[in-house]
Amino acid sequence: MTKISRRTFGILSGSLLASTMMPSFAKAAGRVVVGTWGGDYQNLQQINIADGNLKGSGTQVIYDPATDTVRKAKLLAERRLPRGSMDIACLTRQGSFEMFQNGLTEELDETKVPNLSKVLPFIRTNYSIPHIYTGRVILYNPKQVSPAPTSYADLWDPKYAGRVGVIDLQYQTTIESAAMIAGGSASDYEPGKAKLLELKKQGVKIYPTNEALAQALKSGEIVMCIMWNARGYMWKNAGIDIEIAIPKEGIGLYLSDMTVPKNAPNKEAAYQYLNAMLEEVPQTAFAEQMGYAPTNAEVKLPAELASAVDYTAEQRDQFVLPDLEYVAKTDADLQNWWNKEFKA
Known about the structure:
- By secondary structure, the chain is an alpha/beta fold.
- The chain is built from twelve helices and eleven strands.
- The chain has two domains: 187 residues, D-Maltodextrin-Binding Protein, domain 2, CATH 3.40.190.10; 139 residues, D-Maltodextrin-Binding Protein, domain 2.
- Strands 1, 2, 3, 4, 5, 6, 7, 8, 9, 10 and 11 form an eleven-stranded mixed sheet that branches.
- The longest helix has 19 residues.
- It comes from Brucella rhizosphaerae.
- One of its GO terms (biological process) is thiamine transport.
- Keywords: Periplasm, Signal.
């Protein structure tokens, strides 16, 4: 069983207001507290779930915005309480796996969340409801990078030395991407370390946030990076001169999940919210506004939008699913190496 280290404990966060529900969940009432990311992610939930599918239900939705790390720490800190502070915890797929392995979240199935039957089989689990997903790609400036990249290896081309960027917080996926061109895999990141040290010698630039890297792309400070397709979609729409390339090594996946803590005060309302989250309108809104692919297989996006954010059957054959157990066991070592060897 995967256990969480003590360093993940700490820092709890505040909360915001809202309102919701859904008629088929007769027992759902009162309020539901959704621990979520803030910004556009929270706003789209408010508009399309709380004030959309669940409007007029009589259930109040309270959003508690914070980081994924804070929510995991809160779940761990509250594990012995009969009633926790959240009914739903939004987590990355890695986070939802680790919380379930630690016995903190409910098993979920169609008896609790009927729309779970519509979820794409390859991202379905028994411990979380996948909300949105996107693939890992290469973003590049078409005026500065020619020919267009086809492999992660193209970021190591000496002619782009000093003009490639990575994000500090994405150390896991950056090491994995390097491993994929150095004999490693989703279950073996070790070869990626030596490969990244080569990139370090070439003057790779490390940015603290997605926003900082986007600004570097916009200014021309960098011309190529590894990034999520959803970010590329948003940045292109914001006017940044970039194109998106799919690496031949495969498409790694990012998944945003929703889970229900075992000590959630209002589980019926939580299941109701999760069911509403999988409906067509909320799923389409996240595709249009944030560039994420729907997890509900029955959602049909407009053709132009689908070509930009969703994946064909052929592309899905290239998906590289994360080895959650491997990452849970090696994360501390990966982060330590990144901080002491790669960033230093």
